[in-house]
UniProtKB/TrEMBL annotation:
Coiled coil: none annotated. The gene is dacA. The lineage of its organism: Bacteria, Pseudomonadati, Bacteroidota, Flavobacteriia, Flavobacteriales. Probably a homodimer. Residues 70-238 form the DAC domain. Its EC number is 2.7.7.85. The chain crosses the membrane at residues 6-37, 49-69. PROSITE patterns: DAC. GO terms for molecular function: adenylate cyclase activity; ATP binding; diadenylate cyclase activity. It is an enzyme of class 2 (transferase). It catalyses: 2 ATP = 3',3'-c-di-AMP + 2 diphosphate. One of its GO terms (biological process) is cAMP biosynthetic process. Keywords: ATP-binding, Cell membrane, Membrane, Nucleotide-binding, Nucleotidyltransferase, Transferase, Transmembrane, Transmembrane helix. HAMAP family: DacA. This is Diadenylate cyclase.
Amino acid sequence: MNVLDVILVAILLYYVYQLLKGTVAINIFLGIAILYLIWRLTEYLNMRLLYTIFGGFMKVGIIALIVVFQPEIRKFLLMVGSTNIKQRRKNFLSRLKIFKNESTSLTNVEAVVKACTKMGSTKTGALIVFERHNNIDYLVTIGDETEIKVSEVILESIFFKNSPLHDGAIIITNNVIRGTRVILPVNMGKTIPNHFGLRHRAAIGITEKTDALALVVSEETGQISFIKNGDFCDYTDTADLIQKIRSYLEK
């Protein structure tokens, strides 16, 4: 049982690391871990005064954790309770290359990025969300539910300025556009450049609350922004952008 206990703790720590990796929260988590180790050290060295002081922090630590890590706790619970098991199975089987036909469901990221590049050249605004492990069916039902295979032409048609579907976001699962005109939660608390608007704030909001990825084409500048975990991700060119999106979708 001791071996099983260690394995389960290792798995839990792995998921916590995956959740916090690349975010500011990882530094806060490390700071709390260091404080805890110091607290245990003061107990071992029988330093009663310091032990009492650090013990006071530890007693209210659970409340502090809930306040500080509220977005991460929400995302973790979504990850644990996700019902999107089919997608995980497909990713697992495609990695093992057991069923070749499973690979046809992988998102055509190249077509998405090419469409975004063309829309950027004409300053056509767009907001594209890639669903990963967290199930976001509740958002799909807010907009117009669809079952359209991803292609460059389809994406350009949806976000064409005179199209009835261009407002809101689209949600892509595997290689299927499952929803259009989707209203996303907007983050109004984060400081972003003035030339970024509600599309960018919506992308930040959905990627903070879930593990989804988002691409935004600015209507003001034509710039393509890639957002993950509520943060803007840097990329060098379209090839680098495609590679990064694919690597995150395959995780």
